[in-house]
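Hi V.,

Quick status before I head out on leave. The structure for the redesign project is tokenized and pasted below; the design run finished overnight.
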């Protein structure tokens, strides 16, 4: 959607042509990657959030500490796992 917006409104090009070219160049591995990677990210966010949430002690201060720790750990883990999943998917579906 962002690419279409830029193409039509900022570059003043034909929106129909943009959509037909985007559809023509869309490949199966692009769809697979777009569906697989969010599953890993969602699993990491849910797992880390639950893990740190269940270990929280110390009242409201503990909740704040646990939240910060969970966000930091989940962010770093998402970047790492995203890199690994991308490498695996690029190995299975090499670019043209």
């Amino acid at each position: 959607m962002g690419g279409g917006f830029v193409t039509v409104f900022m570059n003043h090009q034909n929106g129909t042509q943009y959509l037909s070219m985007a559809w023509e160049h869309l490949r199966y591995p692009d769809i697979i990657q777009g569906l697989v990677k969010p599953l890993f990210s969602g699993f990491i966010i849910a797992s880390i959030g639950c893990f740190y949430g269940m270990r929280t002690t110390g009242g409201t201060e503990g909740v704040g500490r646990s939240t910060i720790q969970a966000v930091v750990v989940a962010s770093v883990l998402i970047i790492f796992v995203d890199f690994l999943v991308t490498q695996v998917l690029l190995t299975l579906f090499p670019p043209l």
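Above is the designed sequence. The two ends are 24 Å apart (CA to CA).

G. will cover questions while I'm gone.

Best,
W.
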